[in-house]
Amino acid sequence: MASKNPSFFFLLLSVTLGLWSLIFPASSSSSYYYYSSKDMASVDEGDWVLLQSSIGISAMHMQLLKNNMVVIFDRMDMGPSNLSLPNNTCIQKPNQPPDCTAHSIVYDVASNTVRPLLVQTDTWCSSGSLIPNGTLVQTGGYHEGDRVVRTFTPCDDSSCDWNQLGVALGERRWYASNQLLPDGRVIIVGGRRAYTYEFFPKTDPAATFYMSFLKETCDGYGDENNLYPFLHLLPDGNLYVFANKRSILFDYNRNRVLKEFPVIPGEFKRNYPSTGSSVLLPLRLNGDVLPEAEVMICGGAPYGAFNNSNYKRVFVPASNTCGRMKLTDPDPKWVMEVMPMPRVMSDMVLLPNGEVIIINGAMNGTAGWEDGTNPVFNPVLYKYYLPDPARRFVVLSPSKIPRMYHSTAILLPDGRVLVGGSNPHEKYNFTSYYPTDLSLEAYSPYYLKPRVSTMRPSILSVETSDGTVLYKQVFAVTFQLNQYNPGSQIFVSFVTPSFTTHSYGMNQRLMFLEVIEVHQLSTYDYKVTARGPPTAMVAPPGYYMLFVVHAGIPSQAVWVKVV
């Protein structure tokens, strides 16, 4: 088995990719951009910090809340965790010994501390969304938890905990995906052998709606390659749905496919277990004009990769391609690019300045128990806006911790990326080659370096009523800036906190607001006047992180509520 030394992997990469291009040539029917070893060697030294060597559980699911707390949870069927529940609390399930350990925590970003939470039914491979009031609605899971709806409402003390609702989902939701809608409902799509969608809140507890696209994109049980479908709400209010290699524009109110987009080129599947990742690239707002919407999908594995790794112990190379497609174009087409290394099970996180970080994952195999190998220690920064594709990818400094199956990453309000998890085993296993990992670490991108601190805005106030931004409202943000670069624009970005699991950030969304003017108030103080999002289809109601960005350097975020 290969060494886990990051330098060894980086050296090995040059040889691997040379062979890759011979074994898996590009499709002649699409545009590909390739990168040389010279491009790949460009490393920007961000900073990794180990926050907690153990939080007691493995961070399989993560959700940032409006009070800068992060809810984290794993599973209930993998044995006792390393964190006890308080007050001798235990869960007793039929025919099982009492479990007196926590399988969920809340992490306090400011104090770097954790508090155990009590979840009563199995949340394994579940989904979630924040609703407009900031409450996390978490849906499905496994065994007795596969139709359960749970909520977590943030609080500023230790009184809040999981609440399991009496209403059940209409169908089993295991490996499903969620998206917040313009009217504040949540749509829940798919799951293993669940070719339907439904809504929360539920007007009819049994109501589900058949979606043939989900069945059509299933490759077969075990190697489905359509689980955790990628969902992105488009500015016209319809839903973009991607599964396997195909994607559609879907009217969820009328249960109608409005358009089928071109199949993404190449042999690679993109959804679980051939797990890639997806983001909607930043929306640039300008008055009432609907913004251009472009999707980006990276990584994955070829057909049969799961069966090869699971049954034959053959770990085929992952995909090293990304596809971008402008969904709002009259004739949309995929434009393919090649990453510096192959990746499966990686997370894609939108940074406050609109850049994308691709982090975690492996270079061989698929998602699943013991089904991946060769961890990718180096994140990659993607600068989507550069005209030259050969300059868009930048290889970043490596972590020392393999983050494989069941790892997660989310954006924090201070601009760091919170990273945790990795448990490619049926139970907790701390002695295997890729052990269960209970740690939390943070990656600080280049924009948090001291050398650029004078160019970092610091928000002083947001001139709205109680932190609320109305649709189309003109409002101002005052900020301090020690060194203004006259050649750089000032941007105001809104970023949603995503529910992240299995390499997919559900509800992840970033928009650059229309900036009306920037006015200097004093030597170091400035005021930027911006216009709120035009509609709930562009920006679903709820809580957003507001950043001021100068010369690509973001401020710390201030929370605002969009209504």
TrEMBL record:
Residue stretches making up the Glyoxal oxidase N-terminal domain: 60-447
Protein name per the record: Glyoxal oxidase
Species per Swiss-Prot/TrEMBL record: Lithocarpus litseifolius
First and last residue of the signal peptide: 1-21
Gene3D superfamilies: Galactose oxidase/kelch, beta-propeller, Immunoglobulins
UniProt entry keywords in alphabetical sequence: Signal
SUPFAM superfamilies linked to this entry: E set domains, Galactose oxidase, central domain
Domain of life of the native organism: Eukaryota
Entries under CDD domains matching the protein: E_set_GO_C (cd02851)
Domain Galactose oxidase-like Early set: 456-562
